[in-house]
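Reposting from the mailing list since nobody answered there.

I have sequence plus structure tokens for a pair of proteins and want to know whether others read the tokens the same way I do. The first protein:
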Amino acid sequence: MDRILVSACLLGRPVRYNGSGKPLADPRLERWQAEGRLVPVCPELMGGLPVPRPAAEIAGGTGEDVLAGRAHVMTTTGEDVTAAFVAGARAALDLALRTGCRHALLVDRSPSCGSVQIYDGTFSARRIAGTGVTAALLVAHGIGVFGEADIDRLAEAVETEA
């Protein structure tokens, strides 16, 4: 049985920067959870950041650029939290590999988990195409990453492999 790494906030856990969850109401998610297929993760907490915490965005690129040392993750207060985001991404990858996750369902637009879009690093609510740090690391290691809007594609991938 394939296991799926999932952003804990999508399960309603209050782990987002502002102390909230972002529950995704979908019967497939509920079924996968009941089947024990979901492996909840919050890379930012795994990297040592607290809840709540200042909002953060990738400045100067995407998650791939952060992993390559070409960009940084900065908070609204000007703190460089790149090391925590990279550590969290590595911890999430380790968890995915240890638990046999071949897919991940991650919250989009996050500087950690964004899989289609992220914010542009200016804290102006402008979005750009790109991935967050964790999503980029998972993809680089062959794990299929899907945003919450792509749950249909994830379900198709999971059912095709079953």
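The second protein, same order (residues first, tokens after):
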Amino acid sequence: MSRIASTFERLGAQARKALIPFITAGDPEPGLTLPLMHALVEGGADIIELGVPFSDPMADGPTIQRASERALSYGTSLRTVLAMVREFRKRDGATPVVLMGYANPIEAHGQAEFAADAAAAGVDGILVVDYPPEECVDFSAMLKQHGLDPIFLLAPTSTDQRVGEVAAVGGGYIYYVSLKGVTGSAKLDLDEVARRVPAIRAGAGMPVAVGFGIRDGQAAARIAAVADGVVIGSRIIEEIEQASPREAPRRVTALLADIRKAMDEGVKP
């Protein structure tokens, strides 16, 4: 069983939901990525989504775009990110790590080489925003051969057919985009999320994590009541932006711990 599957199984047995924070590798500087990853775990992260910085992040709002720009200014590359995961694994062999990014760096690296290198580094899942399921059947199979979960996005506009297409090639969990917009957008329709998530879970046959627009413990708790996981990214990046490098890990731990507490209190049986 993969680390992602065992995490959701463990949480389900505890009647808890997955807290999945996102940070951009190399932001605000490469030397802080490892301390921030460990700080996320200390704050209650169950799975870490680690962003691979890219110059044209089409699904990301201004906050994560700035994070990518800062990371790229230090020369952070896909190979750098894989090296960071290898270092993370020296201390943490349990927390699943999902790489989230775009197709260009993977294409430049080579799909087969990337799948092998990601598995060797200790990565657990891959989410490529601009790889639609119908165009990466072979790539998904390649990832699965290396024990990696191919994770796909679904949106409020996704049809039942699209859910089925994702279910056929995906693994780990579904990332449900909670709104029609980019990351960090303010408008979050919780009622729509509550209506859509159970149907997607039933149709896909795998856990559903919800992200985009979740900024505090109250919203996270309401999402956790209907979803299997909650993804928070832009709010964490903002905390990092507002802190000094020395303070950033401590502030990230405190922010995540508050959200974790709200989620646990909100979904008690």
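Reply #1 (J.P.):
I read it the same way you do. The longest strand covers residues 18-24.
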